[in-house]
# Entry
Amino acid sequence: MGSAVVRSERLSGVHLRPVLASLPAYVPGRSVPGSVKLASNESPYPPLPHVLTRIAEAAANMNRYPDNGSAQLTATLAAHYGVDPGRVAVGCGSVSLCTQLVQAVADADDEVIYAWRSFEAYPIIAAVSGASSIQVPLRDYVHDLDAMAERITGKTRLIFVCNPNNPTGTAVTRDALLRFLSRVPEDVVVALDEAYREYVTDPEVVDGLTLLDAHPNLIVLRTFSKAYGLAGLRVGYAISSDPALATALRQTQVPFAVSSLAQAAAIASLEPEAERQLLDRVAGTVTERGRVQAELAAMGYPIPPSQSNFVWFDLGEQSTTWAAGCEERGVIVRAFAGHGVRVTISSPEENDRFLAAARALR
# Structure
């Protein structure tokens, strides 16, 4: 007991980086027994049966380390999208790839630009890497790309464009994005974070992969966590125009970051049969998104049009109170204090429970 006390006293004086004192904490969606969880933008559907079979097969070899380079998954992604494998990097979810990208391009006091409010991990990973965050306010819930271009300086190294944007669900159009890319210097990396790309139905919202050949400083980030229903396995990928960016992501990755289970599940998810089933599931979510948005509009809620699997409520200072009201009615949503509330589109039954709560709180 005495030695333990001494050790505790010694550790109390350990030196920690000053940035930790002001580092914002990532707040995950909560799960409450007996309640519907609509706080994390998860798919309401489990992995497809043949994907589960592959996961079980991979589990039999868990005594071995996974392939550090995710070679088979990399090759599968390259073939799927018709690109050279050297332009593909696999990571432990797209947020891990965001972190690796900041580490690869930004030194201390360099700048990372992103919209705000946007994905809450951006300020965290920028601060941990020592880079300065340049937050540019949204305009009508959408990235103000003109204002973001005007904030570029000689210290700018990376710009995140979350499209569709989390948490507002809005998306920038092809024309707006092309104008923006034309204003970004060639030595500044633009990361198009397309974690929710599968849910986009607006033809004016461009697929970032179609822009890579014309923009060497562009990199597209995607994930298997959302539409593919593999959130618990943590696997994402990046495709870049310049192979040097993909190489940099591999250099900054923690060894063996992507498990064998995740690699096997992702490969299975890209097979033609799985792709067809995925499209059916996404179509169901998109249909529910339209129904939920229409019913909320009829209730008088001003909901921005969403291109993702969630909707955004601009409730300002009432956000936490409104979210608490949902929880009292058995529905867990994600409140951003002082800003708004994000609600995941789920199954028809769970969406009905949420709509009943929203109606009661109106």
